[in-house]
Fold this sequence. Notes:
Layout: E1 15-18, E2 21-24, E3 31-37, E4 48-50, E5 61-63, E6 66-69, E7 77-79, E8 87-95, E9 102-108, E10 117-122, H1 123-126, E11 128-133, E12 142-145, E13 154-162, E14 165-170, E15 173-179, E16 191-195, E17 201-211
Antiparallel strand pairs: 1-2, 3-17, 4-7, 5-6, 6-17, 7-16, 8-13, 8-17, 9-10, 9-16, 10-11, 11-12, 13-14, 14-15
Amino acid sequence: MSTGVKTGWFVVVLSVLMGCQTREIVKGDGKTLIFEDDFNRATLGSSWVRGEGEGGTGKWRIEDGALVGSDIKNDPLWWTGQLPDQARVEFDATALSDHGDLKFEIFGDGKVHASGYVVIFGGWKNSLDVIARLDEHGSDRKAQKSRRALKGQTYKLAAERIDGTLKWFVNGELVMSYPDEKPLVGAEHRGFSFNDWSAPVKFDNVKIYRLD
């Protein structure tokens, strides 16, 4: 694990037309790195903690320099730091089965599943992609047919919030936006976590930024 801060540089909003799709690589005027973790160690360490979840029989563990989980049953692994209200999180994600289910949570309370926004790539056996607010089954969630998280393929996932709108990217492409008229902000909504139901998953190379 390593942490660090990078300042004095800016990101550029870049849109490239590819066929009928627009690839939005990065959104924001600038960003400052506040945390990163490559999991190149034997144990989880002090930067991550198990939440107060549903008590899956599986566990989060380090394997070959990556974070691996299975049968977690919505008992997230929370970063022990705090997100700013405008933040960007990037990481590598790999489905280790045909069921996909690459799940993470952002702007939660650091303890409980679905205390913030839940983002799911290839959920419900690779049938849906979802951004949900406080309830992944709620009527106000954004859901669409999944582009599918293919077994063994590593994806670059990112989520960022600017001015109340949460955006989710896969390999630099904007997948879904969630504009929130009452964004989840404040002391109870500073958390980021990895999550899973039963499918085996792998995460690596986390970077967390403050958006300036």
